[in-house]
């Protein structure tokens, strides 16, 4: 049995909130590590996406497979940039 898309989206949001350094100070984030993209801007974008989806789901909207794919792709891309900028430790 496949999980419902709203459950999958909720799980992805929870994982991103746990793994992304949203509480990192700008000084820590923007030191010498901005060689692969601006972590602050990427985290702001991801936070806005999370907030948007949380609000939409609270209002009863159910994400479709395309929404999940797009959200997942953005999350993976931003995660890789944060890893390259050494703001997240690589997972084995």
**What is the general shape?**
elongated
* Structural domain tally: 1
Instruction: Tell me the fraction of residues in β-strands, as a range.
Output: under 5%
Low-confidence stretches: none
Query: What's the pLDDT, averaged over the residues?
Result: 89
Order of helices and strands: HHHH
Report helical residue fraction.
Answer: 55-70%
Q: How would you characterize the largest beta sheet?
A: none
Which oligomeric form is depicted? single chain
* Terminus-to-terminus distance: 29 Å
- The total of beta strands comes to 0
Instruction: Determine the number of helices (DSSP H or I, runs of at least 4 residues).
Output: 4
- The radius of gyration over CA amounts to 14 Å
Structural class: mainly alpha
What does this protein look like?
By secondary structure, the chain is mainly α. It has one domain. The chain is built from four helices and no strands. It is elongated and about 45 Å long. The model has no long low-confidence stretch (mean pLDDT 89).
Question: Which structural traits does this protein have?
Answer:
elongated, mainly alpha, single chain
Would you kindly provide a brief summary of this structure?
By secondary structure, the chain is mainly α.
Write the SSE topology:
Layout: H1 5-19, H2 26-29, H3 39-58, H4 65-84
Helix pairs in contact: 1-3, 1-4, 3-4
